[in-house]
Amino acid sequence: MSTWDVTTRPSAISGQGLFATRAFYPSEIIVPYLGKVLTSRPVKSSESSATYILEIKPGRWIDGSDTENPARSANHSCEPTAELVMNETENFANLRASSHILSGDEITFDYGFSLSESLFNPCTCGKMSCAGKIIAEPLRPALRRHLRFIRRRD
Ligand SMILES: [Zn+2]
User: Fold this and answer.
1) Distance 73 CA to ligand 1 centre (A)
2) Predicted TM-score of the model (pTM)
3) Residue 150's pLDDT is what?
């Protein structure tokens, strides 16, 4: 039973998603992203566990794969409803609403993947602005250039 006002259920985007059980206003903390803090680069034991590893700053990662961390279910979206922000001690992150969220809305954030990571991670968020790949918003123009480059070589 989650102590946070969120629930996990199947998502139209991918697998399990994180959903609000009440309304949140912009900049309100929704749920912490909890996990073991790692100070060395984690070994990717499997593709699924890799998904939950969060680089919170250079040389520090959070392994959010624990089932006690409901935030791990949050999907990526190209038009996210939340953002991941560090708390003051920089030992964990919070999912914070970046727009008005209604009860029942899916809570999503920008996974911030690099260009190389994005190439193996298609995005299925279904938004008008979907980049087609999971990639950090500032890198999307670079992704478009990269894809054009690939097509030119075909
Ligand atoms: Zn998308």
Assistant:
1) 16
2) 0.85
3) 67
